[in-house]
Amino acid sequence: MPENSKDDFIRWIKEGKKTSEAVKSLIEKYQLTELHTLVTIELIEAAYPGIDLSPFRGYIVDSNYPFGNPDDLNDQEFDKRIKELWENPPEPW
After folding, report:
1. What are the Cα distances from residue 85, in Å, to 11, 32, 49, 50?
2. d(CA 28, CA 25)
3. Cβ-count burial of 71 within 10 angstroms (0-12 exposed, 13-18 middle, 19+ buried)?
4. Are 4 and 43 in contact (CB under 8 A)?
5. Going residue by residue through the chain (93 aa), what tens digit of pLDDT does each one get?
6. Among residues 62, 56, 46, which one has the least CA distance to residue 79?
């Protein structure tokens, strides 16, 4: 990944793009043919400091979002889950 890709991603989120739109903008801008799910997770955590993705991490990895089958995880569900985790973090154990 290019060095400023994380900065671009964070800027797009701050400008109001949905998370899925920011992911797709990154893919388009840098002409990526793949994006490892752990990089996607790292980008989300950078854009949403303090977000706890643990309840959703497995879905992202298992679905190979965004390059996987949309029946497994589509953009709308992806954005919905990120928004829910950001606005309503899970209770600590």
Report:
1. 20, 27, 12, 10
2. 5
3. exposed
4. no
5. 788 899 999 999 999 999 999 999 999 999 999 999 999 999 999 999 999 999 999 999 999 999 999 999 999 999 999 999 999 988 877
6. 56
